[in-house]
Amino acid sequence: MTTSALTRANVLRLFHAEGWRIGTIAAQLGLHHGTVRRILQHNGVKLPAPKRRTKVDPYRAFIRETLEKYPKLRATRILQMVRTRGYTGQISRLREVVRELRPRRAEAYLRLATLPGEQAQVDWADFGKVQVGRATRKLMAFVMVLSWSRALFVRFFYDARMPSFLAGHVHAFAYFGGAARVVLYDNLKSAVLERQGDAIRLHPTLVEFAGHYRYEPRPVAPRRGNEKGRVERAIRYLRDAFFAGRTFVGLDDLNAQVLAFCQTLAMQRLWPDDRARTVESAFAEERPLLLVASGEPFPCAEQQPVRAGKTPYVRFDRNDYSIPHTHVCKELVVVADAERVRVVDGTHVIAEHARCYGAGEVLEDRSHIDALWSEKTGARTHRELDRLRRAVPRSQDFLRALAERGEPLARATRQLEELLDAHGACLLEQAIDDALARELLYIPALRKAIEQLAPPGHREAPELPTRLRAIVVRPHDLRTYDALTAEENDDGDEDT
């Protein structure tokens, strides 16, 4: 915690003017004695070493020498070094000694000046989390500032991945009317893959993107906030002047509001280099000097391989998107940007949907479902025909006769299956035999025949579950038993 100027003044006054000891000052002002000692030492007071000997005392000379060579070395690393030399104490006391012995030198920074159209600064700003349907998403702001005019562009995304990073640039260049010659980045994962001293390996996608728009991507030095201080101040301004107390409905609404903010309030700020001008007037001077991109915008969409299962859907970003049923069980590619999700098979786009940022949602194209339903309906007709053929062989003759007359077979097949479910195969086959013999090729004639052939007390069978309807059980024709009974009666008459 930083010691206030009043506390430091009181410590110095009580020590020099009143002659109080360090322990007395600490007790009366409610400070730790180490804090009092540090204030006095930083103000040129030569204090004797503490009388209480600690475990770190034998290592003071080594720590001082090490810090003179490596002033920025952390206490945790020094702890490892002294542990190998026999130190058995805690890191808390070691930290106090490191703070006491570390060379202190205030670092001066140059005020960086740029030319119009020369430089822009980019960074991400984290604005917490928002609820989108059943999903919790991070809310990230892509921020770009033109270093000379301080013109500001902001666009919000639900992530900070490379596709969003590049899309933020594209929107910013369109808003500004061009790109600066140099764009400064912090050590973002989307910009810097690896850094060893002055050796920097940039992300290859960013290098390709920068080549497309003809600008130079330039990472700033680590822990050099002054090199990109303008975007840092812009983010602080965005939090205070725009986001605080802001309400919005969805990402589109928030981006519409922040665009209006960038075009109005942010442009009306006083220009720091000349308080008589506004940022808007400085931007009007800088805009003609920006690099204007030629050709098509750089493709920023995310590409992800997916495999369609047995159902006509592919999963992307926790949601399901429908595809034509002819592409199930295939390897496909999802191409997604902030607004649209496209499913591609080779070079052909087979499906396109609005992007969903919720979770567990199902997005369907009605044409995909209708095509599958039509095919499944045809398949159902074939299944019905097969079941009728096995249960009631004479049904094929009945349907063939209907086909010769030009009657619609799909409806007749469905009605025959309903009669089969209601009255059984035996009665239906007898009714079909009767109808064919009398050439009454109508479904109502079959119903009438079943009513006449049904035994007294016959009732329709209860509806079977779908999984049982495909099972065909052919009961024996009861007319054979009638014939046997008739023969027995005849024999009895003769004996009599």
Could you write a compact summary of the structure shown?
The chain is an alpha+beta fold and 496 residues long. It has helices at residues 5-16, 22-29, 33-42, 60-69, 75-83, 91-101, 162-176, 204-213, 229-243, 250-263, 279-286, 366-391, 395-404, 409-423, 425-438, 443-453, 466-469, 479-495, and strands spanning 119-132, 135-146, 152-157, 182-185, 192-196, 199-202, 216-219, 270-271, 274-278, 302-307, 313-316, 319-322, 331-336, 340-345, 348-354, 362-363.
Characterize the structure shown.
With 496 residues, the chain is an alpha+beta fold. It has 4 domains: 5-101, no CATH class; 119-289, 2-Layer Sandwich (Nucleotidyltransferase, domain 5); 302-364, no CATH class; 371-481, no CATH class. 44% of the residues lie in helices and 18% in strands. It contains 18 helices and 16 strands. The chain has helices at 5-16, 22-29, 33-42, 60-69, 75-83, 91-101, 162-176, 204-213, 229-243, 250-263, 279-286, 366-391, 395-404, 409-423, 425-438, 443-453, 466-469, 479-495; strands at 119-132, 135-146, 152-157, 182-185, 192-196, 199-202, 216-219, 270-271, 274-278, 302-307, 313-316, 319-322, 331-336, 340-345, 348-354, 362-363. A 5-stranded mixed beta sheet has the order 3-2-1-4-7, sandwiched between helices. Strands 10-13-14-15 form a 4-stranded antiparallel beta sheet, with no helix packed on it. Helix 13 (395-404) packs antiparallel against helix 14. The relative contact order is 0.06.
